[in-house]
Amino acid sequence: MASSNNGVSENGKGLIVSFGEMLIDFVPTVSGVSLAEAPGFLKAPGGAPANVAIAVTRLGGKAAFVGKLGDDEFGHMLAGILRDNGVSTQGINFDQGARTALAFVTLKADGEREFMFYRNPSADMLLRPDELNLELIKSAKVFHYGSISLIVEPCRSAHMKAMEAAKDAGALLSYDPNLRLPLWPSEDEAREQILSIWDKADVIKVSDVELVFLTKNDKIDDASAMSLWHPNLKLLLVTLGENGCRYYTKNFHGSVDAFHVKAVDTTGAGDSFVGALLTKIVDDQSIIEDEARLKEVLTFANACGAITTTKKGAIPALPTETEVLSLVRGSACNLSKGNFPTSVMLFLFFMFSLLFTFLFTYFML
């Protein structure tokens, strides 16, 4: 991928560099069962930072991935998938002594996701600072990362060096912790390390589960969210699954409703959401300061996340812009035809009841 030093590619679109892990997700062929109960598994490429990179290119953006894969068939397959999806692989290294990471993931009948990882160590954990493609990283307009790369050395040092290089070059830093507790030595260690780089990020996205974990507070409300605010933060997002998302900036905050679809597998939905957001703001960060425009972008991002849940696996389910706009327009059409969400119907019923009571009381007097 050709790009200039200011992070703008030859076709005028800003480059989004995604740093971290890429692996193989094995998803049960049957939904709603535990990993032990699954009769078989489907192989699906995954890894949150890689998911974000492909989400960007599916939507017409420019993305590169920086990380390390095993010098094995799975590793080269993953690199090929990135290239096939238009993601630059100039930042990928291959390790001859470690395997590509594997993860078994399922959505159980109670709605909880279950993970089992095979990385002892995997290649992504062994990325060294001296292996980084700093020229590529410095050319980013947005540098996106998670927290899994913070767990062990030398990858942690590589993460810190890459993040600092991108920041010094003027990139917007985007952080999605993507909490995976089974990978951490303890909950306290996970919380401490995730928060250790918190004040470096310009944009942070957390899920409702991550909000509870990081704040040690069961309440999912504005006060809990704002306890995670830091002075240099431009945008804080809390995704709420089927309840949409909440957004917080220096000057305003609010919420955006979700799109209701028939969910099959929620893996990758948050990554799709982030990819959509970054694609929309990479070339116009002033969107963050304009509430009306930001809500439009988050509506688009919610639609991306919703569509991703309708298929098994993360990367195979990431939508194109055409698919997203179809869902957004279809929802708007339903509203115009009077097919309102239940919350709107209840509000209208409540207001009608108040009006009826007032009129009845008035005429009786």
Explain what the structure shows.
This protein starts with 14 loop residues before the first strand and ends with a helix. Helix 5 (187-196) links the parallel strand 9 and strand 10 (203-207). Strands 5-4-1-8-9-10-11-12-13 form a 9-stranded mixed beta sheet, with helices on both faces. It contains 11 helices and 13 strands. Helix 9 crosses helix 10 (321-336). The chain has helices spanning 48-58, 73-84, 134-138, 155-168, 187-196, 208-215, 222-226, 269-281, 291-308, 321-336, 342-364, and strands spanning 15-19, 23-28, 41-46, 62-70, 88-95, 102-107, 113-118, 142-145, 172-175, 203-207, 235-239, 245-248, 253-256. Residues 1-6 and 335-340 have low confidence and may be disordered. The chain is of the alpha/beta class. It has a single domain (15-22, 47-97, 121-319), classed as Ribokinase (UDP-N-acetylmuramoyl-L-alanine:D-glutamate ligase). Helix content is 37%, strand content 20%.
